[in-house]
Amino acid sequence: MNRPLVGTLATAVLGAAALTGTVGTAHAAPDRASHHRAHHKTKAVDFAGTVALSNCSGSVVKMPTSQENDPALVMSNGHCLESGMPGAGEVVVDQPSRRSFTLLDKSAGELGTVKATKVAYATMTDTDVSLYETGSTYAEIEQKYGIKPLELATEHPAKGAAISVVSGYWKKIYSCSIDGFVPTLKEGDWTWKDSVRYTPECKTIGGTSGSPVVDTATGKVAAINNTGNEDGEKCTVNNPCEVDENGEVTVRKGINYAQQTYGIPKCFGVGNKLDLSAAGCELPKPAATRR
Questions:
Q1: Are 35 and 166 contained in the same domain?
Q2: Interval 256-281 mean pLDDT
């Protein structure tokens, strides 16, 4: 996993290394090759709507059906939960939370905080996502801070699509393309389905967990950043392995991954309320409600 940064010591150690190497280049242009791949319709991606968590990254997100007076949702990884990582098969629904998120403007300036009221949904099964309901509406956030949410795409992203991984924690944008899709990605006890593999330019690190992956052609969120193979190990924590339809295992040291989010909007209804029984919703359900 793109490790959540836990505690001040870890932050100090990883922060010292990363500050010298990465934050200073936060606004550097993408490499020349990716710049040429981008066409004139590409939308400029910035930090507006992203958030920093205590240990991870995230973003204020809306569904296509969300209304301005709905409670705003913040999306991050399931493995970034303040209560600890959900076990394989575990689904968290409606868990009270007072978590604070630092809201960023387009140039990564800190605007203020938005507070959660609950974890609406979180899991590390099939995907790696947490969705927090906040005590603010989208309208209130826009009125106070001038910030609009990022919108979740509802279609499967395309191989070769140009993407930006926007980390509110490090205030850094990683630009690359979707290299392909992985039928099964295994890491420790966890298994994720139809994961996004980045091209090598996206060298995400600890603290980038939960970053929105923005399709630069549409400006919409196509996936959520969550892991990478750090040491070349096979299927261990921090070293996910790819498993194809025939069960063949591939290890790609230094390559990073994200989990698609296009199915999430089908699981939220009127008022941004979670509805796991809605038509087309394929998010894993809590054990007690599985059919």
A1: yes
A2: 98
